[in-house]
User: Fold Membrane-associated oxidoreductase from Paractinoplanes ovalisporus.
Amino acid sequence: MDDALWTAYRRGEKIKTELPVRGEELRRLLLSAPAPDEGHQAALRLHGSTVEGPLDLTDATVDVPVTFDDCTFTDTPVLDGLTVPALRLTGCHLPGLHAERLQVARNLTLTGTTLTGAARLRDAVIGTGLDLDRVRVLRDVDVPLSPGDEMPPEHVAVDARGARIGGDLTAAGLTWRGALLLGLTRVEGMLSMPGATCGNGLLHAPSLAARGFYATDGFRLTGVLNLPAATIDGPLELPGAEVTELSAWGITVTGSVVLAQARVAEAVTLQGAELGAGLHATGLAAGRLQASRAEIRGDLVLADARFDGMVMMRGTRVGGTVVLRDAELGEHGGVSLKADGLVAFELLLECATPPGTVDLRHAVVELLADTTAAWPQRPLLTGFTYRQLRRDIAVGERLEVLRRATPTVEPQPYEQLAAAYRAAGRDRDARRVLHEKLRRESHGGGLPGRLWGLLQDLSLGYGYRPGRAAAIFAVLLLLGTVWFAATADCAGAAGLCAIKADEHPAWDPFLYTLDLLVPLVDLGHEKAWDPVGPDKVVSVALIVSGWIFASVVVAAAGRALSRS
Assistant:
């Protein structure tokens, strides 16, 4: 063994030599455990050298820190099961790295290193942090990869499944092709990947645990960012990121999820997710959003977002506001927004008219803030309930939305709208809504029902236009009085002929007409006089009108009592 190498090792000094260093020689050096020189701490610090041949430290214990700066390895270092205080491979070139079950008391640093093969860190235990900043893993992967733990070896770029990292995992500027595997990895600190890029591959991290996930500053991934059942005890931030697909079903995030200005070519999947501080995706552009049965304790903000396909929030619970202001929705299978069973404090639906339907069946919100443009030709609103309306849209426009939503009339959407108007003190609008409901119900029946409904509508407005009834009654009473006052004649005397000459009240055309129009009250005039000819026709018409009018009033009164 070279004396200079041995001396520098004992003193922890940097070793820089243009001559190749054999891997076997380094192995013997590291396992020799020499006593350090007085005042120095032993360490291996190799700089700018070429390591020839294999460096195999399988299951070895090295008691000194090991550093390789700007070194080139001709063979893949084998460090499986190695125990070492600290390990640095910075700016190096390696054909790969085998370090499964590696145990590092402090940091494992690979900053600026280039690998042409995989970095295998499966089940590694790293005390204070893993540094993959500016690492490049250049695998020749030309086929699209699908998430899964059974990945062909030639497709793996970094395999850190099951690793335990006592601090942060930083990968700023990491570049890779192939699969980055972090399944069951535990990161006690943050997982930070600002500026990381993947030309063709994926990040597969089922059941990952970390105190935050940051993929910012131009993060690019041509492939799937797969985080199923992950636990992020902090925020998940991907502002401005570009990925092919984000799949995070069942994820738990205690902080906020930030996808502002992100670009997701295919789906953003958050089915069954639990988000502690909301989803903020202003300006997101994605193929579609799948967030069914998610639990979101903050706001779900999709303002200015653009989707090529459907936004799915079926059975989702949102503690704050669902914001769809100025969003552009696509459609899939004829549906643009499928939010049946949605529960939220507020729904802010102020987007352009969706190309497909909006499904809010059985959704429940406290506040609804909408615009008429946001409702498509055929919304689905059966069972949709809300307490207050935050936008002052003309009642006629809202009725038009309900008409389109209920080709066959359904009472509940009308009753819901009327209840919201009553809660706001707008009783007149509430009555108009219920009037329209009854009108549509009568038009949906057979001919007798339609005729009966028409009579109720024209006379009383189904009980919601009592002033109209009074006016009609007054008009009939006036016309009858004028008719009988002008035309009634009995042998030259004014008035109709009496049925009993010696038993009749004084002739009074007003009281006679009133007695004809009120069928259930006898004023003693109808039965005292005997109309003939045209007077008979008018009398019968007034009697029939009175009975019809009484029936309509009784029906309206019955509906009023049932409502109360």
Observations:
- The chain has a mean pLDDT of 87.
- The first helix runs from residue 3 to 11.
- The chain is about 25% helix and 30% strand.
